[in-house]
Amino acid sequence: MSSIELTNGDAVADPEAAGAGASGSAGSLRLRHIDRTLDLLAHEIGVHHRVPDRHGEGVHEVAPALVRRAGVLLDEASQRLGGDATPEERAALADRRVRLSALAARLDPTVAPASPPPPAPRAMAGPGGIAAAPSPAPSPPPAAPLGAAVARGRTDRRTVLRGLGQGLTAVGAVLALFLAYQVWTSGIVHSRAQQLLVPSFRAAALRRAALASSASAATDDGQSGLLTSGSGSDPAPAGPTALPPPPSAGAPIAILQVPSIGIDEVVVQGAGAAQLRSGPGHDPSTSMPGEPGASAIAGARVGYGGPFRALDRVRRGADVFVTTWAGRFRYEVESVAVVRSGEPDPVRAERPWSSLVLLTSAPRFLATQRLAVVARLRTRPLTGPLATKPSALQPGPGAFGGARGGVVPLVLRSQLLVVAFFVSRRLYRRWLRWPTYLLTSPVLLALLIGVFESLGSLLPATF
């Protein structure tokens, strides 16, 4: 056999070319060649080795060739030594094989390092001085798949990380969809409600103005209401009359206009979450717009059309118009300020003049504070019997707190959504896809909207 060139250019001589010496010399020479090959293998792994990925890439091409070459040398050495090998030579071969297995395991984690076989018992002299053949050693139990366990551990960690990443991605997608729902989809609900409130407000204003006109002796156009004045003149006081009770929650009471920032909204009675979905809401615990005292109107800034989204851009001196059944009232902005927790309430502040306070959340997407715009009434307020009596004002739900008990519906709807999702996923795999899409998509969409509604109820009404 001729010499065999290694990958790095070093030659390893064949043991037969070294001469026909004693078997011990041949074994020692072959062990030196094996050691040299293993050293080269260790060097290649140390220089070029990288952690293999699942596609088997990342290992230098020299190292696998050296693994195969070292294995061939070990097998040849075992065959040539055969039964003439001493226990020391057998132990040396076992040590080299363990080292080769360990180096191979570094290249492939699924290869388990081989454990050295137990030393063969020495031959005992039998009767007559003849050495008895050694009894075959029992085969050792299979080695524990250490490399496979390491690989499984890595796979388990990757599975956990992949599941965690998918969960976080799903949560992020749901939050992004919720924000999109609050900004755009809920705006459709708001626009539809405003379209229905405009004729409702005009009809209610006409009825109330007709009752006031028939019961009052005054004939001034200012008291005839929204549809007869329209010129911005001061509403005139009226005589005693029996007017209908104050408007119920959700009923339209006025039209709010801020020309400088483009606000033109129908105002409803009540400042809770249910009322602010339709438009700006009047706090029933304050005076009615256009009447003496402080009147407060709250509005959403992000969700449900965001009618007050540009409220922070209004400037001092800007005009604010409020049209009720009694006429059109003009206010002038006096201040724009952010009210932090613990600071005095701008609605309850004592002022020598009648005021209108517009309230919303600040900052826009956090809703941790309040933005208050205080405007001063510049026209004569509505007084006398036509004004709403303070005893008729009922305290309403706050505009800056979420709905109570909203956590339980959120949890229940979320659980229903998760169950429906997994049922739909199972149907996708077992049934026809298009019929499954047609059946499950409306259900999933309805449950998702229900979750968004429950989640939105936990936010301030002015969000």
Observed structural traits:
alpha+beta; Sortase, Chain: A; 8-stranded mixed β-barrel; disordered N terminus
Describe the fold and architecture.
With 463 residues, this protein is an alpha+beta fold. It folds into 3 domains: 4-117; 176-392, Sortase, Chain: A (Beta Barrel), CATH 2.40.260.10; 407-457. The protein is 41% helix and 13% strand. The chain has 7 helices and 10 strands. The protein has helices at residues 23-48, 62-81, 87-107, 146-215, 273-276, 407-430, 433-457, and strands at residues 4-5, 11-12, 252-258, 263-269, 281-282, 294-298, 319-324, 327-339, 355-362, 369-377. Strands 3-4-5-6-9-10-8-7 form an 8-stranded mixed β-barrel. The protein has a two-stranded antiparallel sheet with strand order 1-2. The chain is elongated, with a radius of gyration of 44 Å. The model is unreliable at 1-24, 48-60, 110-117, 120-133, 143-147 and 217-241 (pLDDT under 50).
Any chance you could write out the topology, listing elements then pairs?
Elements: E1 4-5, E2 11-12, H1 23-48, H2 62-81, H3 87-107, H4 146-215, E3 252-258, E4 263-269, H5 273-276, E5 281-282, E6 294-298, E7 319-324, E8 327-339, E9 355-362, E10 369-377, H6 407-430, H7 433-457
Parallel strand pairs: 4-5, 6-9
Antiparallel strand pairs: 1-2, 3-4, 3-7, 5-6, 7-8, 8-10, 9-10
Helix pairs in contact: 1-2, 1-3, 2-3, 6-7
